[in-house]
Amino acid sequence: MKKTLKKTAVIFLAVMMTFLSAVPAYAGSDEFSDHLYDEWKETVESDYLTMHSSVYDWRELGLTKPEVTFGDISIDSFRETVSYAEEALEKLHEFDIEELDETEWHDYMAFEAYLENSIDMYSYPEFQFMFRPFTGYLINVIDYFADFMFYEKQDVEDYLTLIEELPSYIDQMKKFTEAQAKEGYFLDDLGYTDAMSELNEMIEKGENCPLVVNFENNIDGFDGISDAEKAEYKERNRTLISESIIPAIRDVRAFLSELKGSRSVQSGALIEYEPGEGTADGLEYYKALVKYSASSSDSLENIFDYLTKAITESYDYLDWLFENDTEFTSPGKIAGMESIEDVFSYLRANMQGFPEGPDVDYTPSYLPPGSNDFAMAYYIPAPVDNIRQNIIRVNKQNTNDLNTLYYVLAHEGFPGHLYQFTWYQASEGYKPLRHELTFMGYEEGWANYVERTMLLRSGLDKTSAEYLYLSEILSFMIYAASDIAVNGLGYDQEELSEYIENVGFDPAYAEELYELSVEMPGSYIPYGYGAARFLEFRERAEQALGDDFDEEEFHEVLLTYGPRPFELVEEDLEAYVESKGERLPDDFTFFGSELPEKTIFEAYPLLKYLAGLIVVIIAAVIVIIINKKRRKMDAEITDSVD
């Protein structure tokens, strides 16, 4: 996963509050670039959290540092966010898109899609749950502190200022949640249980919680202060955590306990929240959530059918591999690498087929125990003004074998998030506003797609590499399909069980998948759907170009213009294939290029049936003709005898 503050709900709200700028609308290409720059400048200068996570040296860039605060969170603030985004969209639409060059056209389209997604998503504050486990507002704020960068001594003071403000910010979350609960919007049962478990864990750890452990690790690694100052800062932080934060977490636990049972629908699936007077439309919100998560404006039904195709055809390919490798019993083990550094060195040395990226630094490290147990690893993007600074955190307990560590680091590093992000950031015409826009389906889809490429280069045999890859991707695909089935199409647990059995999964997992879909709507769609789209693009390009397929050119088409809706990626790929004198086919089979060429009868079984039927008919006709001739001959012989 790519960890960016703009992807968390709390920071997303703060960022979106600043998209309206006082810059007048322009009518030319240069003016458009200036407009986007001013939008970005207004954004980072209006929100401290965004500036600190996006900018390395605000003074060097001539920026004004904003007040160190979380800001406001309320129903009204969501409405203001929507209003600001609508006005920003109006300003964008005042530009003549025909006057923009190719790069600016993509910037326009990406910004437009992002604003539209924001308007749709944040028109439904009823479904923005502050205390949702794993992905909610509170856990995102706490995760924010885990990787807070110290560039200068003042950053430490800013960090502690935010820690001091956190209890009052939590109080705002509680008021927001109370207003939701009064209207019948509350966590599902599993979400409530997991949220309470998260809170209990933080309380039980006390001064050993991540807010203490991570802070002290970061302070120890910071060279800008003396040892005495480090000790003083550690003590201040410990006091704040034990005397303010832990009590605030206890209050949240008691608060949620009192609200248990407030939900007005049965399971909590979003489709159950039907529209009415004063009631938010859960299905419309879910459509917006899927559009944001998938980086696609396709319908729920089409995305569901697409995922079903991807699942069944991926299973078919895996079955074919097993049929042709009868000795395979379990995947082999990657050899020759022992550490994170070893894996990174190997990955970087095997980047054939990917266009050369910029010279960057990276800092891989293991997370302290108990930090973000949900994640296997994550990448923290480089600041907009320091492309060399890249950080990757790895959860050791979730990557305890080399096979897993290898494809996780391919996902987060090379040629995954780190490579994709820095390659685009170093490209000509890159605009800093794009640093603040996220398209999760594209970002996670790319990182999942390249895992396969690098597993096939790991030294493992092909069946092992494909098995490791498909085991993960098929899981993401079935999670994503189940999510849509439950939250968007209204499947109950029995219907979901029948569906997952039909696509090849054990129906015994239906209850778990149902509960996960309700608890974390939209969470796995970027991974399952996103990966499928990139696999599709690869398959269709190879089918169109045949021996002329160039892997590096293909990847450059995908990377150029950065994260964007898949509709734009497909248009770019179509244009590339047409420039080669070919056409991108509409029909394809996932992993079809890996399968042996089929005869016309294998490709189209109906033809085989029809051909057999024709043979039977012809044979019958021949028999009839022969019998007629025999009867005629017998009659002639009889006449001659007479």
Report on the structure:
The protein is mainly alpha-helical and 642 residues long. The chain contains 24 helices and 3 strands. The protein has a 3-stranded mixed sheet, with helices on one face. It is globular and about 70 Å long. Residues 4-28, 599-604, 606-626 and 632-642 have low confidence and may be disordered.
- Category from helices, strands and their pairing: mainly alpha
Helix content: 55-70%
Strand order of the largest sheet: 1-3-2
How many strands in all? 3
Q: Topology as H/E string?
A: HHHHHHHHHHHHHEEEHHHHHHHHHHH
How far from one another are the termini? Answer: 97 Å
Q: What is the beta-strand fraction? A: under 5%
The shape is globular
The Cα radius of gyration reads 29 Å
Sheet bearing the most strands, described?
3 strands, mixed
- How many distinct domains? 4
Show unreliable segments: 4-28, 599-604, 606-626, 632-642
Mean pLDDT, rounded to whole units? 90
Short description:
With 642 residues, this protein is mainly alpha-helical.
